[in-house]
Here is the input.
Amino acid sequence: MLVDINLLPQNEKRSRQWLYVVAGVISLGILALIILFILAGNLGKDVDALTAQLQSEKQLRAEKEQSISDFESSDAWVQLEDAVSWVEDYPIDTVPVLDHLVELLPERGFLKEFTYAEDGSIQLSIQFDTSSEAAYYLTHLKDSKYTQDAKLSSLATESVMENEQAAVNTEPVLPRYIGQYEVILNRDSIKEIETEADEQGGDSE
Here is the structure.
């Protein structure tokens, strides 16, 4: 007895399996390509952002360098250097200076005003009983090693009030003299006064 075997359906089934495999591979390839395109797009965006940030930082750096260049070429730099120099040299401790100026006064001389300027000069207003005392005090100032220069800018008389005259006695009181002095300090010598004052303070402790 003959058996009829039909092989055509089996061949069609096998061909369909290979077709599914090929379709799956193609689908995976397409999916991989899509993922690569997405990653490449994101990477490109990151690169663009980093490039823009780098350009911004370069521009900011250029602006700062220009600002520094403008500052160095302007008078502000010179003024800053002058200010630093002034801070290094000044201020001088005025207490020992004032003590020294008072020591030079005559017995009837009284310090009324004391003004210390940033340039190291001192303005003094001093009361004397006679005009000769004002001249003597100017001589003492010029002879002092702690002063570089001194001058008497003005000398005026000051009348005594009636109640002050009555409070002293019935005898007439001569008018007082007010001398205005301008003194330029010798900074190196003033430093010596400060050093001596510090040493004396340390010894007393």
The two ends are 139 Å apart (CA to CA). The first helix runs from residue 8 to 73.
